[in-house]
Amino acid sequence: MSVLKTERLSKRFGEVQAVREVGFEVAAGEIYGLLGPNGAGKTTTISMVCGLLQPDAGKVRLKGRDFWSDPQASRKLMGVVPQEIALYDDLTGRENLEFWGRLAGLGRAEARDRAGELLETLSLADREKDVIKQYSGGMKRRINLGCALMHRPELLLLDEPTVGIDPQARRNILEFIRKLAAGGTAILYTTHYLEEAEFFCQRIGIIDHGQILAEGTLTDLQRLLGGDQVFVVEADCKTSQPEDWPGFKDRFRVLQKLDQQLVVSAVGGSDPAECLKQLLALPVRVGNVTWKRPSLNDVFLQLTGRELRE
């Protein structure tokens, strides 16, 4: 049974349909990445899953039970790490952990012991008595994550937890999250960093304009573009329209067209060598053709016509 299952979740704010019939599942020990640009509907979806927003339509089920049948019990199953850091700057790292642990229902002694355990795990034991305003951005992110883990949730909701931190701090947090999943925690991870989703998400849902456009493993998504055949053509395409080239539409699908570059995927599993030969013979001045493995950004371009970070 899935730890989390959403069914046709929808939410409107005035004239804006923020989320439209979104459905996915997250199993124990799985990291499910919800991937999309800013404004795609990721945070609204997280807010409905954790009960901050009530959906206009659809269901959120935790271990088979409807969230709103017992919201208090549902919230005890999950930990939430918001995009904005939710800490008290004038409290120490330990005091923040113990405070949020008590709010989650832990007794005083249990909160103290659990805070000590997490401080060690997060490599912050030597800074536990320092107030949060003295912490670096990466340290704040780690304590923010620790606060959500105080009550040992079965489901962890992470809304872009690595925004605004340096690469080393990001790697540390991602490794820590992967270890949580290996221990059986179900993780819903929202991001617009494609490299994070490629790095450790077992399954990925691509969301844009409030809708899930595609879902599956990285391999599943790559198959949408013809397996491993994506080509970058360096050529003067400013005044050219590929769809007008004889036979081009039968052999290639355009993912992106710029003035000096054309990104295409092969249609029908064509031989890569033959594809390269055909692309070099295009009726424009071609400088170079590169064959690469499709990325999530290539998939997103195909589905939406825009970059992940737009």
Description:
- With 310 residues, this protein is α/β, with parallel strands linked by helices.
- It has two domains: 4-217, P-loop containing nucleotide triphosphate hydrolases (Rossmann fold), CATH 3.40.50; 226-293.
- It is built from eleven helices and 14 strands.
- It has helices at 42-49, 71-76, 93-103, 108-121, 137-149, 167-182, 194-200, 218-223, 248-251, 272-280, 296-304; strands at 4-13, 16-26, 31-35, 57-62, 65-66, 78-81, 155-159, 186-191, 203-208, 211-216, 230-235, 252-257, 261-266, 286-292.
- The strands form three sheets. Strands 6-7-8-3-9-10 form a six-stranded mixed β-sheet, with helices on both faces.
- Strand 12 and strand 13 form a beta hairpin.
- Helix 3 crosses helix 4 (108-121) and helix 3 packs parallel to helix 5.
- The two termini are 36 Å apart.
Offer a few descriptive terms.
310 residues, alpha/beta, Rossmann fold, 2 domains, 6-stranded mixed sheet, 4-stranded antiparallel sheet, 14 strands, 33% helix
